[in-house]
Amino acid sequence: MIFLSLLCFIHRSTVVQATDLIPITNDTTITFSPNITLYYDPPQGTFSPSALGIYVWSNIASVKIYYDLLGSSPNINSSYATSTAPYIQMNTPFKVSRNRTLVLIGYYTDSDGNNFKSKELRIRYYVEATARPYSYAYMVPGVESSGYFLQVKLEVAATARAQAAGAQEFADFYSTRGYGTYSTQIQALHLTSIDSDLNGFEGGFACKLLYISFRFFVIINMICCIAFR
Q1: Distances (CA, A) of 191 to 184, 197, 198, 223
Q2: pLDDT tens column, 153-176
């Protein structure tokens, strides 16, 4: 009895999933509307050396813009952008072609409950890499800093405007009066928070870091620049 119930559950789940994965552009229950226009920035063909931030919007504020980052037609389960969250981040994972295709389609429900869709857009970008959210710069304020140093995130995904996610942005336009850094973007840390054995700090001196890839390696290089009593 338990075995038969399990089989029925699996079969029913499979049918629902298949229905949900119909591309919006092929869904005959949604009426095409030439009145829905989609816009995007940056333009097609843009090259980015890191992750690319794409701003999308529509002439109708309540339109949901469903998208797919792998060149497939979006379905109702796909991610979507709105007028209050209009940014899409496109990455190129390791060993994946930099030739990326973003597919957009607008979806709108009117006051009578009727569903409408826009024309599907296919946009080509050239994205070299992915975002590196754990890349940092470390700065020693000077001699007699008592073990404190500054940690600065080098890459912060923009939320206030269309901007490459790998670019530095020190102004959070959603903060009070539109200025100030993002949360935890700049932090004052103490060496003993990394390792309690790092006592007797005297100061620091400027040095050149030849390789910065992971936080662990940066910390090692940073410690090499610290003078101890």
Answers
A1: 17, 9, 6, 9
A2: 877 766 655 555 555 566 666 666
Q: Residue 82: what pLDDT?
A: 95
Q: Where in the chain is the domain with CATH 2.60.40.10?
A: 24-127
Tell the residue number behind the tokens 């949900």, with chain if given. 20
Residues sharing a CB contact under 8 Å with residue 74, sequence separation 6 or more, in sequence order: 23, 24, 66, 67, 68, 80, 103, 104, 105
Which pTM was predicted? 0.62
- The pair of three-digit structure tokens given for residue 80, joined into one six-digit string: 């979507």
Partners of residue 139 on adjacent β-strands: 150
> Measuring CA to CA, which residue among 124, 119, 115, 76 is closest to residue 97?
124
Hey, what CATH class is 24-127 in? mainly beta
Amino acid at 165: A
